[in-house]
Amino acid sequence: MLKNIVVFASGTGSNFKNIKHSIDNGDINGMIVLLISNNPNCGAVIFAKKYKIKYKIINDYRYKNIDEKNNQYKLVLDSYNTELILLAGFMKKIPMNVINGYKNKIINIHPSLLPKYGGSGYYGMKVHQSVIKHNEEETGVTIHFVTEKYDEGPVIMQRKIIVSNEDTPETLSKRVLKIEHHSYQLVVKAFCSNKITFNKNKVIINE
Ligand code: GRF
User: Fold this and answer.
1) What is the pLDDT of residue 200?
2) Could you tell me which residues come within 8 angstroms of residue 111 by beta carbon, excluding any fewer than 6 positions away?
3) Residue 136 sits in which domain range?
4) Alpha carbon of 162 to ligand 1 centroid (Å)
5) Ligand 1 closest atom vs CA 11
6) What is the pTM of this model?
7) pLDDT single digits (tens) 61-71
8) Which atom of ligand 1 is nearest the CA belonging to 111?
9) 110 assigned to active site
């Protein structure tokens, strides 16, 4: 059975596009049933329109009342029988009603080796700028389950790259994004084939 996947994205959406292409290539036992975005003009929404993927805009303009907005996320997710939520550059906080309703079914990708350079204020180029500023020897990507603790849920996969003397935040961002695409695809594939399990709080990807 294909798993119903809902992607949340606010920006370019390159991770979203990459997952969609992997699905189309038959690499993942899932289908993207919906894109949720706060930004109707972002690259992810433009891509969804082009590929006839359903999308829903949820933001403060459309839902002025916070409870109404939070309920809307949950209602929409429930109505699509969502089995996996992928955060792919979503710039808003996931409300508690969704986190509680979809425990161990929400996955986020972050462009650093968490817990380093994670949490509030660390997004986009800010992450890579900090890595360079602190003369880190390595950086990378973290894919993790989402819990109520921002950027702190159980880690599913981390991949490292070496930071060279020539690296700038821009070169790092490109190099990290490349491993993001590959790693996210592997994780989503494993999840959709029921190969991700827990041993106490540790995540195992079974062969
Ligand atoms: C990625 O770096 C991801 O790790 C972070 O947001 C960025 C999204 O990039 N959460 P894209 O929109 O998928 O290209």
Assistant:
1) 87
2) 127, 128, 139, 141, 173, 176, 177, 180
3) 3-205
4) 20
5) 12
6) 0.97
7) 999 999 999 99
8) 4
9) yes
